[in-house]
Design a protein that fits this description.
By secondary structure, the chain is α+β, with helices and mostly antiparallel strands. It folds into four domains: 91 residues, no CATH class; 63 residues, no CATH class; 64 residues; 63 residues, Arc Repressor Mutant, subunit A. Helices cover 36% and strands 23% of the residues. A four-stranded antiparallel sheet has the order 2-3-4-6, covered by helices on one side. A hairpin with a 2-residue loop joins strand 7 and strand 8. Helix 9 packs across helix 10 and helix 11 packs across helix 12. It is elongated, with a radius of gyration of 31 Å. It comes from Leiothrix lutea. InterPro entries: Dcc1 (IPR019128).
Amino acid sequence: ADMRSRAEVDATLQTAKLNPAELLPAVQCISFGPQAGSGECCLLQLEPGLCADLEAGRSLVIRGEKDEHAVLCSKDKTYDMKIADTSNMLLFIPDCKTPEELNADPASCNIIHSQIAGFSKNYWELRRCRPKLKKLRKLLMEDPYEGPDSQKDQTSTFSKYTTEDLLSLIQASEEEILHQLQVIDACKIEGYWRILDFDYEMKLLNHVTQLIDSESWPLSKVPLSVCLEELGSLEPREMIEHILLSYGRKYVDDGEVFFDMHEDKICRAIAQMLLQNAVKFNLSEFEEVWQQSVPEGMTTRLDQLQGLALVDKSSRPETIFLLKVEDLPEDNQERFNSLFGIRQKWTEVDITPYIQDLCAEKQTVGALLTKYARSSMLNGVKVYNSRRPIS
């Protein structure tokens, strides 16, 4: 390309009836460079926080297997990636000067020749999203840990997962994954993350609650050292400690480690054990058996079972059955389809524990219901049903 001279530029300005005095003295002549046609450029729009992360030398990672929609993760947040088309062609000019830069440097009152290195008609737009963590539990549940004596563990053909494996398979940031491993009470065994088989977990919990009972300890002050000493011959010490961590809060008092046991969580686990052996349970019978089954001094309450079990008030007598929120689909629409398949009409109180986890930042359950359900009045109570026919 031939380079334009100042005279040619002035002639063009005159033809365009533009007054050079009103313009900046410098002129940028832009031409396509030899590589510009390949268009091998991707643009990513970043919010200030992510930009600061990159500038500080931290990495952003794109995660997702071949059949999954890509997400971008920082250390602690997850973003959906969507292509946004622009009506304007975006040009990349490496040494382009902005008006501010030209103003600051009055000496640059001449012709600057710049080459276009590439162009794009779209860019990646990031939208903060909920980490896709359901798969984490699913992967670990392929092969739950049944204890050190389990023959199955020696012969199992299932994959086991390290932190690295999970980081490459789960569409969530490292902090969100590590937090979720805590939420689902996963533990590291020989370097691999595992979830305890429910029956094995109950066996461990039972050892601990029986010991608490026989020693008459207050539930708020269970000593780690005595638990390990007394139960270490029955189960691995790290399993005893894991179950205390899962069902209690660890604290140190006068140099000794104690656990304050979570009453609600223990009652909930025992309810799950009772409910998983029956399709439906007569509610009043269940409440009686449940209270008899929990450790001395604990009080069972139905609100301990939110997101675990559902009471059917319309049946006579009333019944209760297991319905675990973690078994429901992760996608919003699929979740609602699934819930309306289980029950046609829901009260807000009943459905809330089953959709609470779908709320995005600052979103309320009410807003979700408005979007995915329609409301009506039934005997003076507001109920919600599906917006679409359920097949």
